[in-house]
Amino acid sequence: MKNLDADIFMDDDVLRKTFENYGKITSAILMRDEQKRLRGFGFVCFERAEDATKATIEMNGKMIGSKPLYVALVCLSSSKSDLNMLALFRLSRRRSARSSSSSTRLRHRPLSN
Question: Against a cut of 0.85, is the pTM above it?
Answer without folding.
Answer: no
